[in-house]
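Usage

Read records sequentially. Each one opens with the input sequence:
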Amino acid sequence: MTADRRISPVILSGGAGTRLWPMSRESYPKQFLPLAGRNSLLQDTAARVSDSNLFCKPTVVCNAEHRFLVAQQLNETGFEAGSILLEPIGRNTAPAVAIAAHVLIEDDPEAIMLVLPSDHVIRKKDAFLDALKTAEIAAAQGYLVTFGITPDGPETGYGYIQRAVGLKDIPGAFSIDSFVEKPDIATAEKYIADGAYAWNSGMFMFRAQEYLDTLSKLEPEMAAQCAAAVANATEDLDFLRIDPETFGACPSNSIDYAVMEHAEKRAIVPADIGWSDVGSWNALLDIGARDSFGNVESGDIVSIENRNSYLRSEGPVVAALGLNDLVVVATEDAVLVMPCDRTQDVKTIVDALKVKDIPTATENPRVYRPWGHYETVDAGSRFQVKRITVNVGASLSLQKHHHRAEHWIVVNGAARVTRGDDKFVLNENESTYIPPNTVHRLENPGKVPLNLIEVQSGSYLGEDDIVRLEDTYGRGEQD
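and closes with the structure output:
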């Protein structure tokens, strides 16, 4: 942000996102969804720190299972990550920030980190940048800085931070009196009336080394395990795999509990930046463009005499009549209906689905792979139909199946096919047949995405019936 130094953004892309089920699921959580615009929340977060005059390339910390999805979404919008760090297991935010700090220090011992969750909405970018300028001054002086959101009402779904006195020579920054857990409504109203409380945003800025030094004092075991996990990390294509053994032994804790609540030199920058953590369907009702009846609608909706409701469809037509204060969300394979004042309870539904072992609880109908994605459109005894998209220049592994045959029909684009000893190109409206135990590969040599229909038939159609002989992406049998 200053003339001689750029800020190093660290984007945290973890979490299961169950509060926005059925759109957000463990296999495809909310940061990858276009919930507040055309781009996903992750893409919007990267765009927020894309000015190369102010920011270095971002470091992204994500679940190993989401690595290709992160890379693809950044690539789609023209953003390049400095590093993508793969967590073998979730250990909350304090260790995630620590491993990013170690990586940054290797390139710049004086690095100043800006820690950003990947799934937040910030509508006032200029105010956001102004807050960063203030925070950078404090961070350069050794403070661990958090951003407090100026509250617009007595919200009970957020933690609060109580500020104390202003920092000398840093206008707009304050020392911190206390962190407060999510309050009841009466307590939240007192906080608002007091004027010294802000919502806890989960965004931070500090020197990477200052964070690691503080972590070593407060959580020495965590600090040691994170240091060892990075020291033993391995490169995998464009990713850095954090060592699973040492990181798995790391204590799990949030940066608030582990560091910020106990640090000696901490500060808060109050910020009115149009912020939302998009933590519930109600949040999307709050930030969305309401019609004259107070509704927010998205997708193929027929709405008659509804009031103050959130209506969204990602597939089928949703026809709603006479609803008041309800959330209705329809995807290709699930429908959610609930009162607006119960949106914090979606996890109860997800837990009930898990008890019944219903895959819809965690799995998205669209499955992403490094080469593109597929989704099942029909299935029955001894057959399955998939819609497959292969990205430009991408290819599937050289593979074979023991128990199934495949029929490929090109809908648009061009497919380069390897089938046994034969290699040929299929164009639009052309097809081919892959018998069982035949070595094959599918590639997209064209300049547009390749879309095809795959019809599988055989005695067993599971994804684990894949024998990979060559793979550009270094994957295992089912990865």
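Summary fields computed downstream for this record:
- The mean pLDDT is 94.
- The domain at 8-276 is CATH 3.90.550.10 (Spore Coat Polysaccharide Biosynthesis Protein SpsA; Chain A).
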